[in-house]
Amino acid sequence: MIDQILDFLKDLQKNNDRTWFQENKERYDSMRKAYLEIVQQLINNISLFDPEIAGLEAKDCIFRIYRDIRFSPNKLPYKNHFGAYMAQGGKNSLRSGYYFHLEPGNSVLSGGLWMPEPKLLKKVRQDIYDQMDEFVAILEKPSFKAIYPELEGETLKRNPAGYPADFPHSDIIRHKDFCVSAVKPDSFFNKKDWMDQTVDAFKELLPFNRFLNYTVDEYLGRI
Fold first, then answer.
1. Which of 17, 127, 181, 207 would bridge 215 by S-S if both were Cys, CB 3.0 to 4.6 A apart?
2. Helices 206-219 & 132-140 angle (0-180, nearest 10)
3. What is the pLDDT, as a whole number, of residue 68?
4. pLDDT at 71 over 80
5. Cβ-contact 104, 38 below 8 angstroms
6. For 148, what's the count of Cα atoms within 13 Å in the CB-facing half-sphere?
């Protein structure tokens, strides 16, 4: 079924306009339904090792395919991918979670915090700074690093105010996002065990997400 979803997205990339989309709306609805079912299966599997995901519904995790073009120079009306963010509270959660992105030639398994709001970002930085050895150990664990080779996202050009310029892990402190990702070729989804491999990759994110979510819980007053 993923082959069919990717084929639809390939056609959408070539025909990203409202006329084509309306003519293929029934096909889109079918592919969206298939994607929902896949995401729900992922949620059910993730909840076996991360109980806070239990009970989450796929419909609350999937992003709209319609682009907000009001302030963008790119006026294409539709995204060329399907994306779902699986975290307690759904796609708009502040929490570190699991992201499943299907896009021809650029499918991604990802997790962490992307674009945290400024006050939360400040607290995350401080907690990472205070527990840097623990955080680095998570990032450098061989099984984790084999899937997620580096911390990704936007960074500052210099250390934020209050942090020493010669801090050994300045590359981490400068981050504005704290996320990791693994890009998968289309052929990955032809494997019989692609779902198992995906769940295993997300399982490696558990210590990373738990570290970040401890800070989120403090920020939200849950601890």
1. 127
2. 150
3. 84
4. no
5. no
6. 27
Structure tokens at 130: 């205070």
Q: Judge contact between 63 and 222, C-beta under 8 A.
A: no
Q: Please, are residues 175 and 151 in contact by the beta-carbon 8 Å criterion?
A: yes
In this predicted model, what pLDDT tens digit does every residue of 163-195 receive, in sequence order? 998 999 999 999 999 999 999 999 999 999 999
d(CA 158, CA 183): 28
DSSP string, 107-170: EEEEEEESS--HHHHHHHHHHHHHTHHHHHHHHH-HHHHHH--S-BS-B-SSPPTTS-TT-TTH
146-185 burial: b if 16+ Cβ within 10 Å, else e: ebbeebbbeeeeebbeebeeeeeebebbbbbbbbbbbebe
The two three-digit tokens of residue 7, written as one number: 């084929």
Q: Please list the helix, strand and coil fractions of the chain in percent, rounded to the nearest 5, in that order.
A: 50, 15, 40
- Which of 149, 140, 114, 102 shows the shortest CA–CA distance to 7? 102
Q: What is the pTM of this model?
A: 0.95
Q: What does the alpha-carbon distance between residue 31 and residue 35 come to, in Å, rounded to a whole number?
A: 6
User: In angstroms, rounded to a whole number, what is the distance separating the alpha carbons of residues 145 and 64?
Assistant: 31
Closest CA to 78 of 66, 86, 91, 94: 66
